[in-house]
Amino acid sequence: MIRCGVLGAGRHGERYVRHLSNGDAPGATVTAVSRRSPEAREQFERRYPVRAHAEWQGLIDDDRVDAVIVTTPPMVHDEAILACLSAGKPVLVEKPLTGNWERACALVGQLGPEPRVMVAQTLRFHPVLEVAREQMGRLGRVHRLRIAQRLQPTGIRWQAHPLEAGGGSVVLTGVHLFDLVRWFVGGTPDHVRATLGHVRPTALENLFDACFDYDVGPLLASTEVSRFTASRSALLEVVGTDGQFEADYLGGVLRWRRGAEVDTLVEVPDAMTIPRTLLAFVEWLRGQRANPVTLFDGAETLRMAEACYRSHDEARRVSLAELSEEEHV
């Protein structure tokens, strides 16, 4: 049994605690959390079979912890990862890998190509999206992807502060979509043109549209996040010469279209991705599979994010290669 500690067990971190304590990820359990608030620590110890630490280092040094799940604000992810690895404890880190591309480059440069780090890009483990990717061969030559998430404004305090979050919807939600683009296509795009916006008073962007393209193609991948609405939706379309997929991965439905033919390929309402992500983490730690989402994968989504910011700020189509040349990654 792999004993996990959840470092920074806030609203999202508690989801990991709950799934682990409920036995939703066989082979793993939770034994410790870290929270600064004395009241929160008391509540965790009352609700779950955990030891609650006031500081990170106490959790990392805990001899009842074999691996650490990092769910802190993004701008301190790199510090937490380095502390865990220094103690010999592998890491599952929530996306984004860290707060920005510059910090991601420094982390990759310091840790090398294969550290004991997996990035929790949980959408890769959604059953609807897994089936869509497995059946990409049905589409013929793919020329178009479109991914959109529309969500309510967040009430999480740190997500409104650049020094903790690193950015707005591009970093906090966009990296999910950027990772799906890379996962479905098989590589990082070559260029992007992006527009960012603010709806209602907010310090960070809560609206963006980014159109990526590949030199081999034509292949266009557009990504959109709208985090200002009272509604929720999550949509993926993949269009090829022989047909198209439509995935509503919030509703859990995947449809295939060709001409007038419409076929529902899979319907999985209420699919939970965190337990499946945890199972993949356990299998990787046990040597049963390769690391499904590497440090490099996490860094590449932040390269895409940085290119979006640069495209918007400079009002131009940006080559992602220029970022790699600058950072030598």
Q: How is this structure best described in words?
A:
Helices cover 36% and strands 26% of the residues. It has twelve helices and 15 strands. It starts with a strand and ends with a helix. The strands form two sheets. Strands 14-13-12-11-7-10-9-8-15 form a nine-stranded mixed sheet. It has a six-stranded parallel sheet with strand order 3-2-1-4-5-6, with helices on both faces. Strand 9 and strand 10 (220-226) form a beta hairpin. The chain folds into two domains: 2-122 and 276-294, NAD(P)-binding Rossmann-like Domain (Rossmann fold, 3-Layer(aba) Sandwich); 123-271 and 302-327, 2-Layer Sandwich (Dihydrodipicolinate Reductase, domain 2). The chain is of the alpha/beta class and 329 residues long.
Keywords for this structure?
globular, 329 residues, Rossmann fold, 36% helix
Task: Walk me through the topology.
Layout: E1 2-7, H1 11-21, E2 28-34, H2 38-47, E3 51-53, H3 56-61, E4 67-70, H4 77-86, E5 91-94, H5 101-111, E6 117-120, H6 127-134, E7 142-150, H7 162-165, H8 169-172, H9 174-185, E8 191-197, E9 207-213, E10 220-226, E11 233-240, E12 243-248, E13 253-258, E14 261-267, H10 273-285, H11 295-314, E15 318-319, H12 320-327
Helix pairs in contact: 5-11, 9-11
User: In order across it, which strands form the biggest sheet?
Assistant: 14-13-12-11-7-10-9-8-15
Global structural class: alpha/beta
CATH superfamily of the largest domain: Dihydrodipicolinate Reductase, domain 2
Task: Give the N-to-C terminal Cα separation.
Answer: 37 Å
Shape: globular
Q: What is the helix tally?
A: 12
What is the second-level CATH architecture of the largest domain?
2-Layer Sandwich
SSE arrangement, N to C: EHEHEHEHEHEHEHHHEEEEEEEHHEH
Query: Would you count the extended β strands for me?
Result: 15
